[in-house]
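Students often ask why inverse folding is considered easier than folding. One informal answer: many sequences map to the same fold, so there is more than one right answer. In these notes we will look at a single instance of the problem. The structure comes first.
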């Protein structure tokens, strides 16, 4: 038995329905969430996105909200879509109440809990610090980069300038899920939002490039011997349950940030538009070969190379 494949115009119809569905879904959720968070959290007004924050974290919430707002303008221009999200900027005492269940014990692990609920930390924390190697043991050029990007006046380091940018990574997941894109692979869903993040920062806020690039350089530069899992097949299998653990997951993310940088440096901002269109169009199941072929022909060879060269890169 064969099933008739939908025509392009039928597919467009399906996508429109999906987008509407997700918008309505998001709207219903927002109403519920607004009731739930009161009175524990405060709320910022005057922004496209809804931002809740732990009392006392006004400045942190505003600076993250400004970044999100600028990014939303850029993405609207580039890909013609803006999702509706609720962002939670939390102090440690509110983390457990609002974080997704598998991450309640890991303060600082940024995540997108359910298509529209983004959870990020307001304060520096042990999880962020756990990635910092002994800076004096890094090669000179890398140690200098780390001091410039994350060094504080008292000689210590804070990864906050990097992790704050991950608010955009998390918002990226709301773009792809609410617009009904099919990501095909778990690594692609993460690479995609890192390409969004890297493209925006490189195009519009390149003064933040050191904060974005140094952290992955540092983690990858420290080697992979501390990590049990390093190949993409393991990432695919362990992703749904975070079975590799938060730290090992962070290493994978660093590789995917670095890959997003390579994609942007090879293909420029046009790759983001092409990848968006391709993932919206290709809702069918794809084998690895079909996916790679499509990426090479419809998007850019550098995106296919992330998969092809993963295990070749040290
Ligand atoms: Zn992600």
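Output (designed amino acids):
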């Amino acid at each position: 038995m064969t099933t008739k494949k939908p025509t392009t115009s039928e597919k467009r119809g399906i996508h429109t329905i999906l987008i509407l569905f997700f918008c309505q879904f998001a709207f219903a959720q927002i109403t519920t969430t607004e009731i739930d968070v009161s009175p524990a959290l405060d709320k910022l007004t005057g922004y496209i996105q809804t931002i809740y924050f732990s009392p006392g974290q006004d400045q942190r919430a505003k600076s993250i909200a400004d970044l999100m707002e600028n990014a939303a303008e850029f993405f609207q221009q580039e890909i013609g879509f803006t999702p509706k999200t609720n962002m939670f900027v939390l102090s440690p005492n509110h983390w457990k109440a609002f974080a997704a269940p598998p991450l309640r014990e890991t303060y600082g692990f940024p995540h997108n809990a359910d298509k529209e609920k983004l959870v990020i930390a307001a304060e520096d924390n042990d999880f962020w610090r756990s990635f910092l190697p002994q800076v004096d043991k890094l090669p000179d050029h890398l140690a200098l980069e780390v001091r410039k990007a994350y060094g504080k006046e008292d000689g210590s380091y804070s990864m906050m300038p990097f992790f704050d940018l991950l608010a955009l990574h998390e918002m990226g997941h709301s773009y792809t899920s609410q617009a009904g894109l099919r990501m095909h692979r778990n690594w692609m869903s993460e690479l995609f939002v890192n390409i969004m993040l890297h493209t925006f920062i490189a195009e519009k806020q390149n003064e933040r490039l050191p904060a974005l690039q140094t952290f992955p350089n540092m983690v990858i530069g420290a080697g992979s011997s501390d990590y049990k899992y390093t190949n993409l097949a393991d990432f695919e299998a362990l992703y749904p349950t975070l079975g590799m653990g938060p730290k090992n997951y962070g290493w994978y993310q660093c590789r995917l940030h670095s890959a997003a940088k390579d994609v942007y440096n090879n293909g420029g901002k046009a790759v983001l538009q092409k990848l968006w269109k391709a993932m919206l169009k290709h809702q069918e199941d794809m084998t690895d070969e079909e996916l790679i072929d499509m990426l090479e022909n419809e998007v850019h060879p550098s995106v296919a190379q992330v998969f092809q060269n993963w295990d070749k890169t040290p």
